[in-house]
Amino acid sequence: MNPSHQYGRFYNQVKPALESKVEEFKIFGYEKVKEKELWDYLTKKKWKKPKEEIQVYEIVADILSAKIGDIMNFTTVEAFKLGDFTLEDEEERKELLK
After folding, report:
1. What is the dihedral angle through the alpha carbons of 41, 47, 49, 55, rounded to the nearest 10 degrees?
2. Is 39 exposed, middle or buried (0-12, 13-18, 19+ CB in 10 A)?
3. CB 37 within 8 A of CB 77
4. Whole-model pTM?
5. How far out from the chain centre does Cα 43 lie?
6. Which of 18, 29, 59, 85 could form a disulfide with 79 if both were Cys (CB 3.0 to 4.6 A apart)?
């Protein structure tokens, strides 16, 4: 979680929506997506420019409308930014292809 983000104060209120969305992803076969990854995507990408007077229902709507493709793209870009992602290790390649 990004506690310094302006919407961080709503985290406990919207936690059920986060849990619901993660469960939805699991139903579609994306078991490895966690609440933290979803929250990171929202705070670092979707809500990069936070609104001043946002309402809780708007945050919940953003959570429930998140698409797995957008989250995966964001996660991939973040992994490349960190620099600890390489394809040199045979085990890492096998894990990626699972």
Report:
1. -160
2. buried
3. no
4. 0.79
5. 8
6. 85
